[in-house]
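Human: Respectfully, please carefully check these tokens:
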Amino acid sequence: MIAIKFFHDVICSFCFPMSYRMRQVQKEMPEVKIIHRSFALARDSKGHEEMFGSRENAKNDILSHWVHANQNDALHRFNIEGMNEADFLFPTSMNSLLASKAAGVVGGQTGYWSVFDALQTGLFVNSQNIDDLNVIESIVKASSIDFKKWQQTFTDPATLTLVEDDFLLANTYQLTGDPALIVNGKYLISGAQPMDQISQAIETIKDKETPIIEVIENNESEHGSCNMENGKWVCTD
């Protein structure tokens, strides 16, 4: 069994193409379990101020990252010009991470993933301010998530605790950035790696994790054993 903890942030530009690739992984390897985990790049305005000097400076610097992320994205979906012309400061992490986690509580990992992807599309393609609760609500309403249940869950302090627990887990793994995959709790795939490298890494891990029984042949292998024959135990020595 391969279980992958997919650490990401909704405002993370390289998480956008990575989420698309992980959906491909899920199609190619349906037996793989993908678990979504939050890891905030800029929890609040203070986060942007610490990284970029001010909230106002953040947007220009971040849009330079979008150029590289758009090259990394097989579909080249980033609307850099649209975001450059948008009249809002670059979003912080928490509202959208809470929205995604609430969707996961209501709709499981499938629900989480659908809202996470929709929020990222809202930001990277449609130039929407996903810090704005009205924008978030409109995106959730357009999904298959039960909106009333989502609303209750979004404002429930327990949902914030779940997000905070993800942050603690990221610290346990000593993660320093997004996106990151933790496979079976002990293998790290860091960054938005190409699809073939992700698949190859997972296959390598599957080989390592598969129990191996070594058969040692000898001339007396039929002795000293008990076997089921015709519904009865037959033991030889």
Remarks:
- The mean pLDDT is 91.
- The chain is about 55% helix and 15% strand.
- The two ends are 37 Å apart (CA to CA).
